């Protein structure tokens, strides 16, 4: 197998593995608050929003050390161990206990930081400046296929149900745990990093992921990775991209946790309100897959760079926010177990709600594929620290958003995303224009990015 074939193989296996793991985890996140609401009249007194806030808070802090962990353990084993912790978190819902739920939230936060840092490194090492756009799109499309399969099951299994029984819950979460473990095992198929590097190719990814088994050398690489993360954090490009990344954290919270809860709380949707959560997740996934696939396939022929894709993303999201504001009751995110009978500015429409799910997924893929692409392009020699910073900012903003989702009405959550999204788009444009200028100065073709 040629070097290029190995790289493509690694990208596909990476995407398929993440598809399985996040079929389980994202479906879990989408239905967690609804399931917990049905448990809170028992001995269980957890909150899905609080759990996700803990996860993303720990996730953000752990990104400070995740490059060092990847440096010592290696990217492949880092992802495998992290996948096991994802499976354990999902398994907690089979027989929920408040202490186990919140403890697992802490551990999966640490695992997530290591998983995504290793993923960013694997994506970059298996790409170059001509293939990073394509590979980012292919990975994103495969990853977001996860939203389709799990939510399709939820839609059919929970159709017509207003209460989630113990048997329903156990069946779902046993299946999700097994699916997560399958994705974890598939990570073993990824070829070793040194096999995917061209002969004589040297960069700091090799320095971080070198072959030496010396404990002293590993510690030196870990310290070097930590210092590199701190140094990169204060560069102009990273600081500007952090605003864009912050927006992806806020909207991630909204579409992955809050919006499904809103749909499930609207009593005017009748007996379909719970199954609509699954249908919403499916259409978010359709938007994500469509965006990732199209932008990946078009990246080789995109002579205008990344900015038009990001512009499309913010326009699509603003349309979605406007429709959600008119369609969903203001108290939907914080409604009690009995739901809400309130009406916004129109009679709640199931069709509009599901269309907004599609728009949320499409807009999210616009931002994330282009962020992955520009980070891999700008920091091909510092991929692990760069992706750690990206996930640090994204996750801390997601943690903040999950925290205020316990208290803020829908209109205020939408307003926050509109403001941050506007400024995040501008800062992305600024970095992209500078990257294009640097590429032209090197005599490269801008359309190759």
TrEMBL record:
Keyword terms of this UniProt record: Glycoprotein, Membrane, Transmembrane, Transmembrane helix
A GO term from the CC aspect: membrane
Keyword set includes Protease: no
Main location, first listed in the record: membrane
Record-annotated membrane-spanning stretches: 12-36, 48-65, 77-94, 100-118, 138-158, 170-190, 238-256, 276-297, 309-328, 386-404, 410-431
Highest taxon of source: Eukaryota
Compartments reported by the entry: Membrane
UniProt entry tagged with the keyword Transferase: no
Membrane topology note: Multi-pass membrane protein
Residue ranges the record marks as coiled coil: none
One Pfam family, short name: UNC-93
Entries under CDD domains matching the protein: MFS_MFSD11 (cd17407)
Family stated for the protein in its record: Belongs to the unc-93 family.
PANTHER family linked: ET TRANSLATION PRODUCT-RELATED, UNC93-LIKE PROTEIN MFSD11
Protein name: UNC93-like protein MFSD11
